[in-house]
Amino acid sequence: MKAAVISAPYRFNIEDREAPSPASGEVLIRVRAVGICGSDVHGMEADGGSRRPPGLIMGHEAAGEIVAVGAGVDGWKAGDRVALNPQLYCGHCHACRRGWPNLCENGVTLGSARKQLTHGAMREYIAVPTRQIYKLPDNLSFDEGATLDFVGNAFHVMNRSNSQLGDCFLVIGTGAIGLVAVQLARLRGAGKIIAVDTSPAKLELARKFGADRVVNPLTEDVLAAVKEETDGYGADVVLEMVGLPSTYETAVRAAKMQGTVMALGFAANEVTLPIQPLLFNEVTIVGCTGFSFEGPVVLDMIADGRIDVKPLITHEYPLEDIERGFEALLDKKSDAIKVIIHP
Q1: Tell me: the pLDDT tens digits for 181-231?
Q2: Residue 148 needs a FRET pair 20 to 30 A away by CA distance; which of 136, 245, 282, 288 works?
Q3: Residue 14, by phi and psi: left (phi above 0), alpha (psi -120 to 50) or beta?
Q4: Same topology for domains 2-147+309-342 and 152-287, yes or no?
Q5: What pairing do the DSSP bridges indicate for beta strands 108-109 and 125-129?
């Protein structure tokens, strides 16, 4: 099989590798679509480079079709179309027993080396346990199925926010996850949605998805805009989707008294938070990672049109052109949001 193997930051060798065989309880999947995630980009850079080292086959946002099943597999067969949950979990540790598979103490992520080298889906075939797959609705393409992970992240953030009808949401960062969050905030009954990004194209899409106010921090003061839209009080729920020290500072300062900052963005290993507004406004910060058992609901909501992912898929390349996919994401003029690779 063909596989894209990292040789250096943003550089890949297309190698011939032996296709895996499904072990007991596993299925072998012919990968048809795999997305390049923002974490893949950050994982090649200084703060996260250990997560995407040379020798790794990356890729965790994937969909494909089953071509073989291992011993003991029931309910799945060759030809079934599936989307993958890339966070491999054990099912028996303390977190898994509590229903938190995304926090599995023994868990690893496909296409990452954060805990151990775990090859991902930037290849023609991958074998995974059946607990990691979800059936694709018939009307969803493989490209749409490959959006499960980032849509699931946005879904999980929203579920943990405990927001209420009429809340004001501030979405900092309108990449793929942020743009889904805008849609979910509207579905959740937001009273107002403010979206922040430096890309005019992404802000225009955020407006299309339901943002009432869009703010470009290169030309406008974010905190002033938030105060203007909230009678000076701030946002009830701030969704931090960027992960930089400056954006986390903005998130805390933009939250209202007893407001909530949902922390998902991760582009730097450490950030410094302004302690005065955090303490004196009793702001709550909630950490988020991955998604739990929301997968089937997420796919159903994409299938019935409540979540629209098609405008987010801006670029597609064959596996041999994976470097062009990264170049598109790194080129601010390309307006790339989600790049899909076809192995």
Answers
A1: 999 999 999 999 999 999 999 999 999 999 999 999 999 999 999 999 999
A2: 245
A3: beta
A4: no
A5: unpaired
- 307 burial class (0-12, 13-18, 19+ CB within 10 angstroms)? buried
pLDDT of 48 reads 47
Q: E strands, the chain, where? A: 2-8, 11-16, 26-36, 61-69, 81-84, 87-88, 108-109, 125-129, 133-135, 168-172, 192-196, 213-215, 235-240, 255-263, 284-287, 313-318, 338-342
Residue 47 has pLDDT above 80, yes or no: no
Q: 208, 258, 266: which is closest to 241 by C-alpha?
A: 266
Whether the predicted pLDDT of 43 surpasses 90: no
Could you read off the pLDDT of 61-110 as tens digits, one per residue?
Answer: 999 999 999 999 999 999 999 999 999 999 999 999 999 999 999 999 99
Residue 303 has pLDDT above 70, yes or no: yes
Q: What share of the chain is helix, strand, coil (3-state, %, to 5)?
A: 30, 30, 40
Containing 245, the helix (H) or strand (E) segment is: helix 245-254
CA nearest to 329, candidates 42, 47, 14, 123: 42
Tell me whether strands 235-240 and 255-263 are parallel, antiparallel or unpaired. Answer: parallel
- Looking up tokens 């986390």 gives 248
CATH number, domain 152-287: 3.40.50.720
* Cβ-based burial of 60 (10 A; exposed 0-12, middle 13-18, buried ≥19): buried
Domain borders along the chain are 2-147+309-342, 152-287
Please state the separation of Cα 132 from the chain's center in Å. Answer: 16
Query: Would the pTM of this model clear 0.85, i.e. be above it?
Result: yes
CATH class of 2-147+309-342: alpha beta
- Encode pLDDT of 161-183 as tens digits: 999 999 999 999 999 999 999 99
Nearest Cα to Cα of residue 250 among 318, 173, 326, 168: 173
